[in-house]
């Protein structure tokens, strides 16, 4: 069941965002990136860098480079993992989640997990292409809130 998240608005004016995004599953991944960027821009962000990498596993390394650069107030990792016949997607998802957590802890830069992990293509489409439950938009909203929080600490 999908639960729509709170729509509390935060300003992204003056904040810098780095996005590490997978190219794999391009229709879905591109929608995540576009919705994420559009949400950041609508909230006032002007400094947004997008690095595209082959797949969701690689977003961790790209996110680490972005966070370590000192040029960003928040880093957002985007990608799409579809469960297949094997546990490959689960292993990748676990590795990415752990890696992104470590990046945030070790660099002090908020690092947002915006990788959709879906059981099938229908579930992924709902999470990536829907106007109401778009995970790209939600990742941007989380990034703005976390970057603001870090700025105010």
Give the arrangement of secondary structure elements.
Blueprint (H helix, E strand, L loop, with lengths): L15 E7 L3 H17 L4 E7 L5 H10 L5 E9 L5 H20 L3 E8 L2 H9 L5 H18 L1
Parallel strand pairs: 1-2, 1-3, 3-4
Helix pairs in contact: 1-4, 1-5, 2-3
Written account of the structure:
This protein has 153 residues and is α/β, with parallel strands linked by helices. The chain has a domain at 34-52 and 73-143: Rossmann fold (3-Layer(aba) Sandwich), CATH 3.40.50. 48% of the residues lie in helices and 20% in strands. The chain is built from five helices and four strands, in the order βαβαβαβαα. It has helices at residues 26-42, 59-68, 88-107, 121-129, 135-152, and strands at 16-22, 47-53, 74-82, 111-118. A four-stranded parallel β-sheet has the order 2-1-3-4, sandwiched between helices. The chain is globular. The chain starts with 15 loop residues before the first strand and ends with a helix. The mean pLDDT is 91.
């Amino acid at each position: 069941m999908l639960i729509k998240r709170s729509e509390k608005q935060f300003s992204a004016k003056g904040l810098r965002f780095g996005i590490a995004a997978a190219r794999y599953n391009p229709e879905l991944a591109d929608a995540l990136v576009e919705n994420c960027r559009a949400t950041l821009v609508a909230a006032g962000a002007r400094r947004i860098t997008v690095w595209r990498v082959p797949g969701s596993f690689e977003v961790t390394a790209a996110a680490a480079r972005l966070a370590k650069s000192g040029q960003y107030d928040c880093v957002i990792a985007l990608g799409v993992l579809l469960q297949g016949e094997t546990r490959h997607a689960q292993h990748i998802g676990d590795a990415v989640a752990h890696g992104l957590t470590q990046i945030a802890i070790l660099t002090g830069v908020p690092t947002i997990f915006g990788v959709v992990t879906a059981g099938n293509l229908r579930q992924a489409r709902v999470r990536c292409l829907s106007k109401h439950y778009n995970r790209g938009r939600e990742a941007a909203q989380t990034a703005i809130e976390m970057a603001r929080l870090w700025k105010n600490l």
